[in-house]
């Protein structure tokens, strides 16, 4: 099937999905899953460099699709996430108080936009499908919590900031060069010696910065992830945020900044270096703010800001191992974030809350959900033998090789901080004492568990055998003129040494077996109920008297209690512009006929004055 027809199938399929879900919400969700699974199969079999015309533009310009290694890589990662989540939704959608027909229809509209973005061969086509993807997701976000409508507006406004800067750059390119295709624009920018190319790269990168949640356009992630429908948060963080990483990859490497700008620091252009520092700030903000969160979805939302910073740092180095690490982290964070958000969706499905201090001890009621979360956070924190370690190790190696020790220190702080914030839901939600109100909670149905456990298998498999992902990354680097990463089978080679994934996995497996044997041999600890103890000489008579997840990292949080807040800054700006709007409204929209006659007269006089 051609790419155009595949996208049309999703667009027309949204109508079919709406009607099917109206009759039976499960039937419509099954249709969505089958369609996404089929799309994954079709994309997997696409031939590189295959292209097709979409429609004609003015001045003989054509809008075209083209399959590139970079686009196919992002599309495959996206469709893996979306198809797994679509399977999860089959059961999840039964209980949620959303509008299931609209939810399923908007999901397919969003997917059609996503595919168009990754296979667009020119700037204008990418923009059209970008807005289509944003529209579909924007319409889904308000189906979540009470504040979800406000979250949707913030999401749309922040996305629009990047989108319009991108569109302005597109028009400027066409006016100056008369071309829009990526290849032709790249050639023109390389040969342009003016400051115009600075403006172009920064404005195009702004769309990626906004969608990735990179500082300073990061504030939308917390409220949007926290209020979006629980299962959709897995798509929002695991896939839609990666659209931003894709545009950043275009701005940095498809438009080769290394050739366009002179070296500033160890072969890194100044523009790339500035973007890397935006990534550094994102890592610090995302890490320290994640530590503070009591809402588990908002916690991982801040984690997405930090991991978006890792991706930008890796891509910005334009180094063989660093660029590969950035692309590998796109895969790792997409999978890890999706499995963590699905595990949270499962918890909310049974408990009805996202507050960490309102839960506890769920490991005894939801063990497989716990396993999914545990493996997800191990990968997110970059611990072997999961795939999450590989990408962070590659980025660290590139930074050491480049002598970027400040950035290395920041990324290391981010990794240490990730251990802290992922432990908070682990201890507060799954470990500790089970609350009485959750005594009857049980594991989610098998249909919801299957995609969660498949994610677990995928993370461990790629952690042991990363070759399938590295094959794509190596091909991307060859096409972009970057020296391909060196690897063979289970071994990855960097200037600082080698990493054998099979050896590491074997060591961890042996250690796990030894720990299991010791656990089975030695006596187990006695389980003590919360009320079977005392404090300060008094027995605890109230089962829910306290929860140690409250103020979990208070000793750290108080160090930056009075941190500057961009959310407050943007809130002040919003209030200011709203006030200006109210003033203009009061001046123009008069409730009396005389007011309208007055302003009509003013407009007529201005028209006559301009004409004269």
From TrEMBL:
It is found in: Cell membrane; Membrane. Its main location: membrane. It is a multi-pass membrane protein. Keywords: Cell membrane, Membrane, Oxidoreductase, Transmembrane, Transmembrane helix. It comes from the Bacteria. Residues 120-415 form the NADH:quinone oxidoreductase/Mrp antiporter transmembrane domain. This is Oxidoreductase. It comes from Thermosipho affectus.
């Amino acid at each position: 099937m051609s790419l155009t027809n595949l996208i049309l199938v999703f667009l027309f399929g949204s109508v079919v999905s709406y009607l099917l879900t109206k009759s039976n919400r499960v039937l419509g969700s099954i249709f969505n899953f089958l369609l996404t699974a089929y799309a994954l199969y079709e994309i997997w079999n696409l031939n590189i460099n295959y292209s097709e015309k979409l429609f004609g533009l003015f001045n003989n310009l054509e809008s075209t699709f083209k399959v590139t290694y970079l686009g196919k890589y992002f599309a495959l990662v996206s469709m893996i996430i979306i198809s797994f989540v679509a399977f999860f939704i089959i059961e999840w959608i039964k209980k949620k108080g959303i509008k299931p027909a609209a939810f399923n229809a908007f999901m397919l509209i969003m997917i059609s936009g996503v595919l168009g973005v990754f296979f667009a061969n020119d700037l204008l086509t990418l923009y059209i499908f970008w807005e289509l993807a944003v529209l579909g997701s924007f319409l889904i976000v308000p189906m979540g919590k009470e504040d979800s409508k406000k979250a949707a507006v913030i999401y749309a406004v922040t996305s629009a900031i990047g989108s319009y800067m991108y569109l302005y750059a597109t028009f400027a390119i066409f006016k100056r060069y008369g071309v829009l295709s990526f290849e032709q624009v790249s050639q023109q920018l390389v040969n342009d010696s003016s400051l115009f190319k600075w403006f172009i790269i920064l404005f195009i990168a702004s769309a990626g910065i906004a969608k990735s949640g990179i500082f300073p356009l990061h504030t939308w992630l917390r409220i949007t992830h926290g209020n979006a429908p629980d299962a959709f948060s897995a798509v929002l963080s695991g896939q839609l945020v990666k659209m931003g990483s894709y545009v950043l990859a275009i701005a940095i490497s498809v438009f080769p900044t290394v050739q366009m700008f002179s070296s500033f620091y160890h072969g890194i252009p100044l523009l790339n270096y500035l973007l890397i520092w935006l990534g550094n700030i994102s890592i610090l903000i995302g890490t320290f703010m994640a530590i503070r969160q009591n809402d588990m979805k908002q916690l991982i939302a801040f984690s997405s800001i930090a991991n978006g910073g890792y991706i930008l740092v890796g891509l910005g180095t334009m180094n063989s191992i660093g660029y590969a690490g950035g692309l590998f982290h796109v895969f790792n964070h997409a999978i890890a974030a999706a499995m963590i958000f699905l595990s949270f969706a499962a918890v909310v499905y049974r408990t009805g809350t996202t507050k960490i201090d309102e839960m506890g001890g769920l490991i005894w009621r939801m063990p497989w959900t716990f396993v999914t979360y545990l493996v997800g956070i191990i990968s997110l924190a970059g611990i072997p033998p999961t795939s999450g370690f590989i990408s962070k190790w590659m980025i660290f190696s590139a930074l050491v090789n480049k002598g970027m020790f400040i950035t290395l220190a920041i990324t290391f702080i981010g990794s240490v901080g990730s251990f802290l914030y992922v432990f908070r839901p682990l201890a507060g939600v799954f470990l500790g004492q089970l609350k009485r109100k959750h005594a009857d909670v049980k594991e989610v149905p098998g249909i919801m568990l299957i995609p969660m456990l498949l994610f677990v298998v995928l993370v461990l498999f790629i952690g042991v055998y990363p070759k399938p992902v590295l094959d794509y990354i190596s091909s991307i680097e060859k096409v972009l003129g970057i020296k391909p990463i060196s690897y063979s089978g289970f071994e990855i080679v960097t200037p600082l040494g080698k990493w054998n994934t099979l050896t590491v996995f074997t060591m961890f497996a042996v250690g796990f077996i030894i720990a299991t044997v010791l656990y089975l041999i030695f006596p187990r600890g006695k389980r003590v109920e919360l009320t079977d103890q005392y404090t300060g000489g008094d027995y605890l008579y109230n089962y829910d008297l306290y929860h140690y997840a409250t103020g979990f990292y208070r000793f750290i949080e108080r160090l930056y209690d009075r941190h500057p807040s961009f959310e407050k800054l943007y809130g002040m700006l919003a209030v200011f512009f709203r006030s200006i709007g109210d003033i203009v409204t009061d001046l123009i929209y008069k409730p009396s006929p005389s007011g309208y006659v007055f302003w009509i007269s003013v407009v007529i006089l201005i028209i006559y004055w301009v004409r004269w």
